[in-house]
Write a structure and sequence with these properties.
Structural class: alpha/beta
Shape: globular
Bound molecules: thymidine-5'-phosphate
CATH topology: Rossmann fold
Strand content: 5-15%
Oligomer: single chain
Strand order of the largest sheet: 2-3-1-4-5
Number of domains: 1
CATH class: Alpha Beta
Distance between the termini: 18 Å
Largest sheet: 5 strands, parallel
Length: 191
């Protein structure tokens, strides 16, 4: 099973991924953790570009779209291997991040055509002001107006693709409980 946590910057995905991973391991399941962008060469280039003031220009958005797709393509083999070993793949972001963050969804769909989609997507939905208060924005996607647009895209994607939406304005423990309620029936575990 491939489970993905999605959400705007500051939605608490990394903390929740860690808590989810520990909870699954306590139950005796083997977990493979994924963070997009990864540590691959395109992933490293992505992180460099994200700190550049040009990152939000249309040209760089396209460059990033291609690099994210390449990074993901490299990742796919690792996800398949983990699934073959019956591990639960839990991921901080996926293809849906490109749809939420980059321009031109049809083109993004096309360049991600061969990418495996997660079986279960949980959107951590948070108010942008609260999200921004959780980190010191150093990437060029981390400003309120931009994040408002990304949040709107995510909510539309959630409707179209049947994501589970969790209110991430709540405290860390409550969000974790909500995630467990969604995941537990899929792994045959009681909350
Ligand atoms: P992170 O902060 O979750 O590590 O992600 C780095 C940034 O990359 C974050 O601002 C979201 C952005 N991003 C995209 O724009 N498109 C993508 O496809 C992915 C995976 C991330």
């Amino acid at each position: 099973m491939y489970v993905c946590l999605e959400g705007i910057d500051g939605s608490g995905k990394s903390t929740q991924l860690e808590m989810l991973g520990e909870w699954l391991e306590e139950y005796g399941l083997e977990v493979f953790r994924v963070f997009e962008p990864t540590q691959s060469p395109p992933g490293k280039l992505i992180r460099e570009i994200l700190t550049d003031s040009k990152a939000s220009t249309p040209q760089y958005q396209r460059i990033l779209g291609l690099l994210f797709a390449a990074d993901r393509m490299i990742l796919m083999d690792k996800i398949r291997d983990a699934e073959k070993q019956n591990k639960i793949v839990i991921s901080d972001r996926s293809f849906y991040s490109s749809l939420a963050y980059q321009d031109d969804p049809e083109w993004i769909q096309e360049i991600n055509r061969y990418i495996q989609k997660p079986d279960l997507v949980i959107l951590l939905d948070v108010d942008t002001r609260q999200a921004l208060s959780r980190f010191e924005g150093k990437d060029h996607f981390e400003n309120q107006k931009f994040l408002e647009g990304v949040r709107k895209n995510y909510l539309e994607l959630a409707q179209k693709n049947n994501f589970f939406v969790v209110n991430a304005n709540n405290g860390v423990r409550k969000v974790h409980e909500d995630i467990k309620i969604i995941v537990s029936p899929r792994i045959g575990r009681c909350v």
